[in-house]
Amino acid sequence: MRLLLPAVALLLAGAVAADDGPDPAELAPGGTATVRDTGDARAFSLPSASLALERQFDFKLGDGVFRKLWVSSPSSTTSSDGLGPLYNARGCQSCHLRDGRGRPPEPGEPASSLLVRLSVPPGQARGPGPAPGWLPADPDPTYGLQLQTFGIAGHPAEGRVRVDWTEQPVPLAGGETASLRRPAWHIADWGYGPPAPGLMLSPRVAPPMIGLGLLEAVPAAAIRAGADPEDHDRDGISGRAADVWSAHLGIPALGRFGWKAQAPTLPDQVADAFAADMGLSTRINPAHAGECTAAQADCRTAPHGAPEDGGPEVDPRLFELVVFYARNLGVPARAAPTPQVMRGRALFRETGCAACHRPSFTTGAIPGRPEHSHQRIWPYTDLLLHDMGEGLADHRPEGAADGREWRTPPLWGLGHTLRVSGHTQLLHDGRARSVLEAILWHGGEAQAARDAVAALPRAERAALLAFLESL
């Protein structure tokens, strides 16, 4: 059954209004793929409304693989074994609960929807990377590029994540005061000895899954057209396109997924998650031991779940079903805006937020994927890298991004976070407990917009927040 609202479908069939005025098509942020808002925690888990009926069975199969809990080898369940030996989660759904947003661990709680990327300071002698401007992260010689917080029987976990918070007051116009919590991240119980000196940590929560196939369908030229790395127009915004290596395509390509835009395609992103998060080999990442390093000899020689023909642990058919599922999760429809929301929409532009959180794109023609082609979408991202200032810096190069740069995250579905994920913790490491806190952490290229929001009168700031929570 198609879940696109009939009134919205009619709006999309007509002319589209200009960006400088109210646009009724914004109520269908995913174009014809927009789904009805269920009003419950399933808002991010529905198939795109434009998905052909005969493909919805594949979507359901992909959902099953996404929910699958993998086990260690050897096992009688040969299509589900090969986990680890070191891992962060037993299944995709473990991190992306209800296809929503992850969060930092509470005291004494294991990190279940947050991972920690690792690297050591870059070496002095380094050859050219696989793509222009590439900034490869140098792995820790023992722990690699990602901390694995679990291990199968006989294999100790690499470590345990802990975060301490320090509150800091932030004054706002009108005599109000907000409070931001600054994280201090620690790794305890190192399982394989001390890490290398100067170890760099970058915690990352799992991002929402909606609309990924539509973002993949945005033409690279349209994304690159918004880049201004030298800030020639002197507006203080100098977004950069992320040119990264695609193991899936075998060539450099435009990065558009992940907190640092390190993945150019959904197959790249899915393969990286199977390898680093679950220790499972795919046709793209064929190493059966996942992230195990040469210093973890027992991990490298442990039994794996690959078939006798030497193929990957994740059968290619299962892999494609997961990619298909990720590509076709629909974007919830928005409610009709109130006058307060419409005022907040105008303030979003007036304060400069829309300079990076670009409201809309039109997707290209994607062969074999009519459901993603020629769609006017409203993700509120430019998919570019931006310097976000020292407050959000992880000081760790990765892909095309330096230690202060992050990809502009899409804002669609923002207002569903509490209902879907059970919390409102935002930003790459979940430090912000609200939309306002997330804004107040912005610096660097976003400093002027952040200051403009902090200077708004209380009623105007409430309108801006109402708009953001309507997305």
UniProtKB/TrEMBL annotation:
<keyword id="KW-0408">Iron</keyword>
<keyword id="KW-0732">Signal</keyword>
<feature type="signal peptide">
    <location>
        <begin position="1"/>
        <end position="18"/>
    </location>
</feature>
<dbReference type="InterPro" id="IPR009056">
    <property type="entry name" value="Cyt_c-like_dom"/>
</dbReference>
<keyword id="KW-0349">Heme</keyword>
<keyword id="KW-0479">Metal-binding</keyword>
<protein>
    <submittedName>
        <fullName>C-type cytochrome</fullName>
    </submittedName>
</protein>
<dbReference type="Pfam" id="PF06537">
    <property type="entry name" value="DHOR"/>
</dbReference>
<dbReference type="InterPro" id="IPR036909">
    <property type="entry name" value="Cyt_c-like_dom_sf"/>
</dbReference>
<dbReference type="InterPro" id="IPR051395">
    <property type="entry name" value="Cytochrome_c_Peroxidase/MauG"/>
</dbReference>
<feature type="domain" description="Cytochrome c">
    <location>
        <begin position="339"/>
        <end position="471"/>
    </location>
</feature>
<dbReference type="InterPro" id="IPR010538">
    <property type="entry name" value="DHOR"/>
</dbReference>
